[in-house]
């Protein structure tokens, strides 16, 4: 069977690589409107850093995994097509700053409708509002020649652990619009692809409405947990508690668990805020104002967390960041990824730049610092290739929890700084006692 995928971002590239690796008898074709990205996927320099992804691609590429610029070929020749396109938050119009922008998805559907030469099974993996599968079907029904079966199959991978998440998933959702013989047959066909390596008990066969809501609710619950522990961290700062001790004590309760209980200067990434806002908007348009306000507060707390961290840094440096030299450790929104989209680290750096501070950024994987270039003070930013460059730092600020940062020679960093610089660890994962003994101010 020929399997197609529209979209070669994090979701499309990782999902299709694992699918090809586990289903060697099927050919998998990935296409993208970004032609340069397709060229990168066919080169030694892959456009995305994700642990384990390169190994899968090098093993399967041009055997049963193909990257192509020809979307028409993929649509015409593949019976089963995964949709893995971007659904960002709308920037303008009705629902702006909350609702999902489905223009990429709509464009994808229009291409499928235009180039189809047979019936298609469409697996919708992009994170979308509840009811989107029905909208897709309504869009495609104008092409009376062919039948389109829409299956909701949201992704539950996390950047940095995506391959592991796909190989050992916690669950696989397969949601259909109707329980017709055609829908059930097509869903079972997709289920067989996954059951090659996924326990059948983990493949949940449900409605598309439930599937779409599970995805939004899952990410919103995780974001809620992060905002919750960050509020506790702020309380610790005021009353003298140790956030690591408090977090551990909370997490030992099996009803809560210790996952997503690490404090930070706010969550980031391309999913959490977007999905919470999506859920918030869904509640709002269904006249559930109290519920909408509840989920909106998760985002509000996250913004407050970032503001509080900058305020804390400002206070430590005697309420004056002007012309201070700051060593920023970490720009990506989390460790083990090169993704700095919607990173709280970036938001914090942009706030710091407003005070005309000089910012020196070190991140082992962030592809570039273009995300900061919207600042009018971008000339105050430099990208370091080594953490040991002498810059006379007034403060060292840890924003991302890269494991590498635990192994750095902080004595050497201290020697490249001004006398007794501040050390501010937003992740609370560097040993404060050692840092203090070296001569940093905490």
TrEMBL record:
SUPFAM superfamilies: 6-phosphogluconate dehydrogenase C-terminal domain-like, NAD(P)-binding Rossmann-fold domains, UDP-glucose/GDP-mannose dehydrogenase C-terminal domain
Active site per the UniProt annotation: 271
GO biological process, one term: polysaccharide biosynthetic process
Reaction equations catalysed: UDP-alpha-D-glucose + 2 NAD(+) + H2O = UDP-alpha-D-glucuronate + 2 NADH + 3 H(+)
MF terms in GO: NAD binding; UDP-glucose 6-dehydrogenase activity
Record domain UDP-glucose/GDP-mannose dehydrogenase C-terminal: where: 327-432
Transmembrane helix recorded as keyword: no
InterPro entries in UniProt: 6-PGluconate_DH-like_C_sf, NAD(P)-bd_dom_sf, UDP-Glc/GDP-Man, UDP-Glc/GDP-Man_DH_C, UDP-Glc/GDP-Man_DH_C_sf, UDP-Glc/GDP-Man_DH_dimer, UDP-Glc/GDP-Man_DH_N, UDPglc_DH_bac
Associated pathway: Nucleotide-sugar biosynthesis; UDP-alpha-D-glucuronate biosynthesis; UDP-alpha-D-glucuronate from UDP-alpha-D-glucose: step 1/1
EC number of the protein: 1.1.1.22
Top-rank taxon: Bacteria
Residues that hold substrate according to the record: 156-159, 215, 260-264, 268, 334
Keywords assigned by UniProt, alphabetized: NAD, Oxidoreductase
NCBIfam families: NDP-sugDHase (TIGR03026)
Name of the protein this chain belongs to: UDP-glucose 6-dehydrogenase
Native source species: Candidatus Organicella extenuata
């Amino acid at each position: 069977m020929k399997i197609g995928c529209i979209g070669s971002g994090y979701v499309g590239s990782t999902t299709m690589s694992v699918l090809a690796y586990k289903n060697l008898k099927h050919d998998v074709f990935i296409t993208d409107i970004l032609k340069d990205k397709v060229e990168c996927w066919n080169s030694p320099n892959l456009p995305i850093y994700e642990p384990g992804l390169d190994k899968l691609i090098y093993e399967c590429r041009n055997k049963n995994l193909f990257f192509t610029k020809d979307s028409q070929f993929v649509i015409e020749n593949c019976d089963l097509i995964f949709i893995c396109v971007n659904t960002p938050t709308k920037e303008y119009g009705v629902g702006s700053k909350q609702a999902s922008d489905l223009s990429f998805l709509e464009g994808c559907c229009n291409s499928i409708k235009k180039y189809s030469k047979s019936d298609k099974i469409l697996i919708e993996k992009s994170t979308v509002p509840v009811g989107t599968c029905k909208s897709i079907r309504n869009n495609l029904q104008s092409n009376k020649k062919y039948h389109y079966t829409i299956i909701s199959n949201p992704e539950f991978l996390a950047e940095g652990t995506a391959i592991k998440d796909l190989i050992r998933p916690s669950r696989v959702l397969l949601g259909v619009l109707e329980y017709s013989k055609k829908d059930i047959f097509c869903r079972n066909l997709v289920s067989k692809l996954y059951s090659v390596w996924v326990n059948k008990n983990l493949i949940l066969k449900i409605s598309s409405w439930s599937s779409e809501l599970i995805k939004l609710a899952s990410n919103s619950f995780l974001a809620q947990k992060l905002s919750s522990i960050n509020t506790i961290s702020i309380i610790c700062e005021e009353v003298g508690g140790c956030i690591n001790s408090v977090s551990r004590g909370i997490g030992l309760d099996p009803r809560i668990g210790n996952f997503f209980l690490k404090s930070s200067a706010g969550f980031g990434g391309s999913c959490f805020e977007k999905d919470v806002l999506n859920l918030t908007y869904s509640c709002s348009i269904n006249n559930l104002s109290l519920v909408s306000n509840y989920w909106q507060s998760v985002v509000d707390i996250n913004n407050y967390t970032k503001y509080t961290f900058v305020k804390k840094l400002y206070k430590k440096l005697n309420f004056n960041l002007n012309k201070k030299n700051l060593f920023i450790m970490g720009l990506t929104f989390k460790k083990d990824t090169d993704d700095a989209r919607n990173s709280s680290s970036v938001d914090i750096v942009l706030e710091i730049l407003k005070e005309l501070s000089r910012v020196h950024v070190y991140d082992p994987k962030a592809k570039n610092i273009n995300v900061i270039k919207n600042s009018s003070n971008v000339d105050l930013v430099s990208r370091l290739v080594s953490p040991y460059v002498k810059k006379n730092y007034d403060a060292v600020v840890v924003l991302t929890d890269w494991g590498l940062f635990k192994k750095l020679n902080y004595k050497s960093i201290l020697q490249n700084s001004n006398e007794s610089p501040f050390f501010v660890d937003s992740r609370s994962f560097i040993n404060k006692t050692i840092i203090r003994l070296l001569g940093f101010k905490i």
